[in-house]
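Let us work through a complete example step by step.
Step 1: write down the sequence.
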Amino acid sequence: MKKPGILFALFPIVLIIVLLSSCIAVFGGDATEGPIQIALLVAAVITAVAGMAYLKTPWKHYEDCFAKNFQDTAPVIMLLMMIGALTATWMLSGVVPAMIYYGLKIISPKVFIVMSFVLCSVISILSGSSWTTVGTIGVALFGAGRIIGMPTGWMAGAIISGAYFGDMISPVSDIVNMASNIAGTDLYKHIKYAALTAVPTCIVCLVVFTIVGLSVDTPDNVELGEQLNQISSTFHISPWLMLIPVFTFILVIKKVPATLTLFFSAVAAGIVACLAQPQLVGQIIGDAEGFKGVFMGILKMMSSKVSIETGFPMLDSLVCTSGVSGMINTIWLLMCIMIMSGVLTACGSIEVITNGLLKFAKNTTSMVATTAVSCIFCNLVLADQYISILVPANMFKSAYRRKGLAPELLSRTLGDVGAVTSVLVPWNTCAVVQSSVLGVATLAYLPYCTFCLAAPVITILIAALNFKIHHVDPETGEPVEAVKQTI
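Step 2: predict the structure and record it as tokens.
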């Protein structure tokens, strides 16, 4: 089996970019409904056939890479299904409507966008999951923002920005643990070091979202009485419904695995729906009664599309849920992404391109910038944030040590760029999930994801300023006093 040259390595990359860009240009927001999946499969087949013919790569090698990717993706698929179930039962049980109801009564429209960022940041730090944050309080805040009349792009941007800020510095975040672990640094040392870039980026977001909120053409005394009456007349609104989010975050604090946490929370919300919202559940189960009705109601809410007639068009669209079935298209896309990623790994394209990037890493600034470019490249091509952290980490780990740079600099860059830019690529798994949960196309919220756009820039800027750059002895790896480097 031959190693590919740079032209062969770039061929599938160009092919993917052309096909995916064409799909988005032709189909727009409907591109993820099937066209992008087929485009990925076409690119994968063409690349695999070319690799078999030119590089003599056996088909078995491709299959092994597929199997490895599918094995690694299985927990993500489980998590996606649980998110679908949870968002449905939280909506129909009245949990999300109650959050919207109380949020509209408490938060002024002028600070709604910036408060959405703050609340999502706090919840994400506590939960350690951007996906969980967006799928729970993010959905509630987005629904409330729609009622007020907030721009959907800014609302989605604030929610996602907050979710990823918390995800970057939370000690229970899988991204934080993965980045620190694979880079070879202590978890809390990583968090402390990551705060040097995360906090300035957060301040930028607070300023931007505050200015935008004050500039939005929504009067501070906007009349919400009608909307509040619609919610309260459709759902039984009670503070007791907040026990479901409390239960969820107790599971998070107890470090119950995310998939199990979402599952138990979804089932609990389904039971609460049958007790607190019998008038709505009755539309779902028809004439079924007793245990059969409860059993049928919970399973239908968690699994399939449910449309409720409330008499209010705004609420009809809000409470239209799809459960796990609504995630099937996302799972299909994820599987196609893993197939394409397997092909690129099997034929050696990624290795060739990433090794070429190392030639540009001459000093601290260029090392951080090259790592950032590699993370973005992996997010564009391999379309998964975990792979976009693992591949650059393995590639640059020894290079950082040779140049006397501490591993926490690498782990911070992986989080600042590999994690946060994933949600900006329309065909990336993170973008697909967040877009599906909020119902906003990636390109529609991309310009407003202030945190995700600013974090990579601030990371490179701080490296260029040589601000608190930690160094190690290249031979022993032991920390040494920071020395001034030529940038």
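Step 3: interpret the result. Residues 59-92 form the longest helix (34 residues).
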